[in-house]
Amino acid sequence: MSGRSSGLWLIYALGGGWGHLTRAAALARVARGPVRILTNSPYADEVRARLPELDILALDPELSVARARQESVRYVRASQAACLIVDTFPRGLGGELAALLPAWGALRVLIHRDLNPEYVRGKALDEFVRSNYDLVIRPGPAEAAPLAGLPQVRTTAPWLIRSAHELPSREAARSLLGVAEPQCVLVCAAGNRDEQAWYGSLTQALSAALQGVTVRSVAPLCPPGCPAEAWLRYWPAMDLLPGVDLVVGGAGYNTVNECLACGVPLIARAWPRKYDRQSLRAAGQAEACPASIDEAVSVVRACLARPGRTATRREFPNGAREAAEILEALGA
Amino acid sequence: MTPSDWTCPRRIGFLFPHPCGRTSPVGCPDCQNGQIQDPYAQRKDRAGYDNYGNYDPADWPGAVGASGQPLDFTEADGETLVKPQEEFEGDMTES
Count of alpha carbons within 13 Å of A90, Cβ hemisphere only? Predict the structure, then answer.
């Protein structure tokens, strides 16, 4: 790797849920130079608590749209970053970067997670990105990418909050989970707060239906309906994956790619999103996509009946490291 | 030059009026880069609309549609058949 980056990287990571912030944190923690993350995720404090070394600038998630746009532009301008890295939304989540980017006098990089093609067409993003970004990084070859045909696109492995050598052993992960029984199912209650009740009910149903299996639900707050003894507050959930036999969760970018990296089967519910197409990701990467809690319980039971996972440590690339090297090579 | 955050404010479409929403007037088939007025903007009623045939149900007695229901298509029906355009960039909690 080349020497330290000479200037600040500012990662624009506005957007609900965990995904944008986690992807930004994955890059920030492997970069050699100073990185600041701008977020409005309601989970910013959870990430700060676990990674206090990160420079996270958190907007109040309750700000009005107009105020959030204003604040975001103000912080981006004030940063004078040598490299502006925009996660997912080329024009900014509220369109507020559209007027700023053409005159931005430093490197502009887009992290190209999947985007709703209607949005891409409606805002003519193909032309906008072609003209206003120096580099587009597609974080994972399996990630749907409507802008993949642009000449400045580079593809890396999926960006992960942990690299292979950082993950605990199976035994250590099972200790974190408090698992005594041979098998463990982890319900990853990621996503939005109004989706938590589904995860709570699912955890309750799995706990009641599965004998000899530990069921855990990982979330910042105990999901409604989730048995208190099954709830675990822990981030990043990727640390827990070496100790589990099956994950049930959403089909967001991080859940899917973390399970793939760790070789843990994922049963995914594809939640509707305005910009992300979880159903595409789930169809391509998940073991099954149950439509109801009853169906999820049946599928979990069938999956657990198959031969168990081995305790072998897995190797996998972390695309965040590769992305940092690309940026450093560009002199960012 | 069109500002980068510009969105066309016109309503377009003959059968199914809807917001234009284009981010540039260049190459627009409806207003031809702002050179012509929206041909549909001033219409009040499609019945007897020149050059588009006669859609007044009174002139088609006994006509029924595929469902067997009388043909009583009105401007209001046109509105209901329009798929509402999804709003983007208006919610800072989306993903």
Answer: 30
